[in-house]
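Below is how a single chain appears once it has passed through the pipeline. First comes the sequence as given, then the structure the pipeline wrote out for it. We keep one example in the README because the format questions we get most often are answered faster by looking than by reading.
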Amino acid sequence: MLDHKRFPIFIAVLASLAFLPFLGKADLFDWDEINFAEISREMIALGDYLRLHVDFEPFWEKPPLFFWMQALSMQIFGIGEYAARLPNAICGIITLLLIYRIGRHMFDRTFGALWALAYFGSLLPHLYFRVGLIDPWFNLFIFLGIYFFVLFYWKKSDFTGAPLKYSSTTYIILSGLSLGMAILTKGPVAFLIFAICLGVYFVWRKFRLPASIPRLVLLTLVAAAVTGIWYGIETMRNGPEFVTEFTKYQMSLLTTESAGHGGFPGYHFIVNLFGCFPASIIALPAFFKIRAPAGRQKNFQLWMLILFWVVIILFSVVQSKIIHYSSLVYFPLTFLAAVTIYEVMNGRAKWRNWVTVTIAIIGGFIGIALCALPFIGNNISSFADSFKDPTAADSIMADVSWVWYEGFIGIVLIAGIFASINFIRKRDLLPQGWDMGMGAIVLFLSTALAINIASVYVTPKILSYSQGANIEFFSNLEDVDCYVDVLGYKSYAHLFYSKKKPGARPESHDTEWLLYGEIDKPVYLSVKKKNMTDHIRNSPGIETMYEKNGFVFMKRSPH
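Resulting structure:
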């Protein structure tokens, strides 16, 4: 086993090696990654770090904290994919170190190491630190808000455990600060999640509040003060319009379905069962039979169970179904996985054979799919007739080169899974705990390695099918004085990859003007082949440049 005293250094080095290199290997994906990167780029272009813009028009949907991080990264490393994703890579390093420290303080060094490994070595938890989405920082701040509140609760209660260093007032202020940062990162749903968790715990304790009303008011005021950094200054400078529209949008997320993002009620259960593999499978016994020891450990497991169910149920009720909406459950799922392994290692629980079988089946399926990717990729054109969407059928005809040895990514995953199972099966022959500890290390590190290699070699190729032709077209227009737009579909790629500059004529936001107006410079358009109409073809001065992968690229010249 690893030297526990050096484990924080090992975590920092391992996370840095996993998250920092090759962040710019793949293009940003439409919509969210490019949308967020474009907001940060326009912050720099306009020199306006208070109000968010997309296409140099006000953008009401998000608060600014994450974009401040991205903009700072872009100013240091240049505008591009690497800088857009770097804040989350840093978040990954911080997150793993924090949960190790929390686990060590709450249990011991072994538990902290297991929790960090479970987070690092699960599919989506690992992958999200390599993309430019808001959620990793948002989730971390919410988790810390709940964690500091729990410390406050323990400070004033009789839970046994190591002495807590700070006063209860300090912990309640830290909880408010964390929740305020979460609200400033993505919105007030952060406080809603915290409030629902608190309400569930209130009911669980037979309607006894875990904090006095004055302390809850103090927490709320601290969170409001943090968010006031932006809300207050923006309102004083520009009036209430921005904050009003932002609030309306946040409310609409709970009641309406975003375009293209519907789903069935059990969507988030399935997504996290497979997306948080293997931690999600290992965590299952801790939902029902396995419990942490008494005192703080058992109480924190209760909080994590509450957090899991609140997030899953809340976002199952919400009409929009997007994978990362429920990504906050990665904290409780990986914690519960660590509890399962820890209790088995200490002889207080039994490892269930059905867990081993489920890991082997799901992991084997994922591994075989990764092994098959080169073969599928090199023969994908034969599947074109099975697509009903003509754009999708044309997109898989993209010129993407796959090589046979890329299938070894799946071999890495399968070998790691069966090596870990081999350690677990030897539990009667090895010292207590050693078998499970080595099994966990091999399982999580091999999964992380497979994800990391796939994100470098596989992800760029997959994106080439869906958006490669568009990115190529827009990137070639970066230094061209022109108007660029898309017709018949939603995208932010034309803004970010053409590096659109501020100061364009207001009419350029009007599709009709671009097609039929008196333009003063060339217009370049991307149109999905299935969306081509006579209205577009009959535009004066328009010509088709070329077609590629389901898109038609057009140019309209001034008269």
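The mean pLDDT is 89.

See the next section for the split statistics.
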